[in-house]
């Protein structure tokens, strides 16, 4: 049956004939699907239980667990397959370049996805599968090639290729997946729940990283699994894949999405009812059963299980990369300033984190990675690297703790205070570490890394949510329908996440040269300088919604 405006209005009974007695289980299911729609057109998702928000945050736990495993093992793996030093920069540059180019495209596509499962979850599932594939290749690539290629030189070449491919695929998907996860949270939660959800995301990000670093620090070779499997790398892959699969499954079943075709059709009909009959409130009309048959017909008209990335009308105006770049450049100035501040933050954070264990080994412990492997200098360097891993674990734990403290501090100092404090403490902490390299003070100051990590994962996305809420309020005041933005939340989250890839590209090109010339000490000094510059930018350039 085709639903038309006339047939819908004709099917509406007079107000006096409608009672609350006909509410049944079918309508309750439909009400669970529908969101609250005000008479002005603002779509307000219903309040979510804490358990649902925790389930939604499990994806960040699994993602960060796998990230920590990569940080601990990717360099030993690359060394073990014989990767030439001149290819290291290529490995770390391919993924962020791909991410920087493609992330906005994926964000825009997810904004218009009409899959019956929702707009974001199909992309999250796909990227999760790519993460697992990449992790399997870089942790098991050497063993896989050894089983199929017998000739030694060919085996080494193919092992390098497969391992590099695995690292690129993993980094690409792990960086990409953050944008759809954040957009998914924004789509299905009210403004208050978005705040809670971002804090839970930061909390579980820290916990996942801490557990991942601890898993990598253990000697699995002497365990039952170590004897059962071929290598320690396979044991680590087993744990990482298991944790990620469980977390991803829980996340995908956390909060149901309203498919885009349902959202558009139901909202349009609700608004037509309001304009024609001027009832007291749309929520009352839903409860009174006016939309029972309507929603059923909409669901029947939509073919279940059909997953199309674009609807027919969207196909006609599919965004090319050129028009997408035009959209990004046309973003309001406060969005661009937020992206620049996010770039400063990630440049500072990554320049410290990528070389921190090497800094501990060479500068704090005065060891050398180039000395013979049985020498005191090399063993001292190795001890410093291990202690550096414990420092990264402290960073992950402090990130979780601070994400909880953010909820307490927010009403008192606001988003501007949280943003400013995160950059300031990180800049001062890394500055002290660079000027006074001592084991105990460095480990203590690692807790400030967690403050920066939690800030980067919450405050910028919180500001994106504030900007969107303000834009919707202004549209309602002008009499327009809420939610009709030229840009969706997906592309804004993607533009923000692109700054992570851009920071990696800048550091991959420039910081490696600085380290080769001035040593690892330059990394923490550079991190401190960039963070303090970003601190000024956050204070004077970023716009905060009152």
TrEMBL record:
Record keywords: NADP included?
no
Which key words are in the record?
Membrane, Transmembrane, Transmembrane helix, Transport
| Annotated GO MF terms | sucrose:proton symporter activity
* Record's bilayer topology term: Multi-pass membrane protein
Q: Which SUPFAM superfamilies match?
A: MFS general substrate transporter (SSF103473)
Q: Any transmembrane segments, and where?
A: 65-83, 89-110, 122-139, 159-177, 198-215, 235-255, 343-365, 385-405, 417-436, 442-465, 493-515, 521-545
State the source organism's domain of life. Answer: Eukaryota
Q: Where in the cell is it found?
A: Membrane
GO CC terms, sorted: membrane
Disordered: region residues: 1-25
Does Nucleotide-binding show up as a keyword for this record? no
Principal subcellular localization: membrane
Q: Which PANTHER family does this UniProt record tie to the protein?
A: MEMBRANE-ASSOCIATED TRANSPORTER PROTEIN, SUGAR TRANSPORTER
Protein name as annotated: Membrane-associated transporter protein
Originating species: Pygoscelis adeliae
Q: What is the lineage of its organism?
A: Eukaryota, Metazoa, Chordata, Craniata, Vertebrata
């Amino acid at each position: 049956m085709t639903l038309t405006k006339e047939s819908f209005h004709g099917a509406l009974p007079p107000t006096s004939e409608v009672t609350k007695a006909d509410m049944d289980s079918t309508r309750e299911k439909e009400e669970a699907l529908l969101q609250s729609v005000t008479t002005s057109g603002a779509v307000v998702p219903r309040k979510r239980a804490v358990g649902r928000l925790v389930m939604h945050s499990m994806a960040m736990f699994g993602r960060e667990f796998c990230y920590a495993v990569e940080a601990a093992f990717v360099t030993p793996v690359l060394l073990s397959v014989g990767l030439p030093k001149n290819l290291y920069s290529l490995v770390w540059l391919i993924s962020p370049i791909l991410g920087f180019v493609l992330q906005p495209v994926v964000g825009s596509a997810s904004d218009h996805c009409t899959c019956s499962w929702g707009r974001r979850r199909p992309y999250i599932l796909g990227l999760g599968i790519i993460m697992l594939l990449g992790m399997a290749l870089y942790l098991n690539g050497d063993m896989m090639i050894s089983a199929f290629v017998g000739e030694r030189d060919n085996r080494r070449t193919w092992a390098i290729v497969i391992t590099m491919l695995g690292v690129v695929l993993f980094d690409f998907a792990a960086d990409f997946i953050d944008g759809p996860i954040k957009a998914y949270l924004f789509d299905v939660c009210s403004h208050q729940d978005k705040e809670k959800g971002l804090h839970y995301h930061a909390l579980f990000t820290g916990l996942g990283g801490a557990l991942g670093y601890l898993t990598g620090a253990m000697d699995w070779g002497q365990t039952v699994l170590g004897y059962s499997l071929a290598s320690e790398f396979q044991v680590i892959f087993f744990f990482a894949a298991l944790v990620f699969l469980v977390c991803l499954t829980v996340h995908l079943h956390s909060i149901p999405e309203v498919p885009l075709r349902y959202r558009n059709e139901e909202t349009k009909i609700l608004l037509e009812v309001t304009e024609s009959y001027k009832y007291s409130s749309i929520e009352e009309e839903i409860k009174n059963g006016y939309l029972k048959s309507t929603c059923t017909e909409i669901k029947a008209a939509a073919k279940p299980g059909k997953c199309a990335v674009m609807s027919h009308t969207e196909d006609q105006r599919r965004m090319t990369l050129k028009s997408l770049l035009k959209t990004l450049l046309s973003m309001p100035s406060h969005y661009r300033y937020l992206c620049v501040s996010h770039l400063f933050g990630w440049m500072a954070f990554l320049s410290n984190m990528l070389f921190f264990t090497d800094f501990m080994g060479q500068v704090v412990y005065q060891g050398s990675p180039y000395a013979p492997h049985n020498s005191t200098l090399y063993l001292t360097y190795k001890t410093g690297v291990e202690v550096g891993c414990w420092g990264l674990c402290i960073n992950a734990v402090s990130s979780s703790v601070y994400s909880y403290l953010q909820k307490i501090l927010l009403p008192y100092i606001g988003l501007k205070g949280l943003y400013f404090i995160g950059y300031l403490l990180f800049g001062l902490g890394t500055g002290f570490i660079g000027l006074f390299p001592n084991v105990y003070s460095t480990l203590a100051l690692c807790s400030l890394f967690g403050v920066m990590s939690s800030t980067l994962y919450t405050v910028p996305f919180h500001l994106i949510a504030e900007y969107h809420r303000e834009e919707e309020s202004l549209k309602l005041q002008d009499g327009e329908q809420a939610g009709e933005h030229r840009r969706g939340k997906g592309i804004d989250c993607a533009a923000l996440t692109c700054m992570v890839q851009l920071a990696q590209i800048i550091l991959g090109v420039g910081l490696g040269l600085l380290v080769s010339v001035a040593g690892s000490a330059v990394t923490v000094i550079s991190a401190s300088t960039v963070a303090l510059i970003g601190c000024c930018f956050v204070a004077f350039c970023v716009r905060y919604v009152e």
